[in-house]
Amino acid sequence: MEIFIKKLTSVDMERQLELPNDTRREALPPFNGSRDIVIPIKFGHDGVLEVDVHCSCRAGRIAFTRGWLEIARNLNLNAGDFVALRREDNGRYKMTARNGRA
Length: 102
Known about the structure:
Elements: E1 2-7, H1 10-14, E2 17-18, E3 36-43, E4 49-58, E5 61-64, H2 68-74, E6 82-87, E7 93-98
Parallel strand pairs: 3-7
Antiparallel strand pairs: 1-6, 2-5, 3-4, 4-5, 6-7
Subcellular location: Nucleus
Organism: Salix suchowensis
Main location: nucleus
């Protein structure tokens, strides 16, 4: 199940990944009254790398904070590229990316 697709901005690349407004929040783990959760996200060409990404909810906005920049660096992402987050059939999360100039 696809949770979101986003074209990256310079803010996404410098600080945190702000999730788009149309993110399928029901596909994310529940916050259960907390403002922060940790989501293990697989990434890379074969999905073999995994990082614990901190997900924060403030004033109704969701953002990936700690861990996100590690994924961005490993995937050599730049502003203008696209990322997508999927929840796989086994319940795990996987992020993929594509070049924005293609």
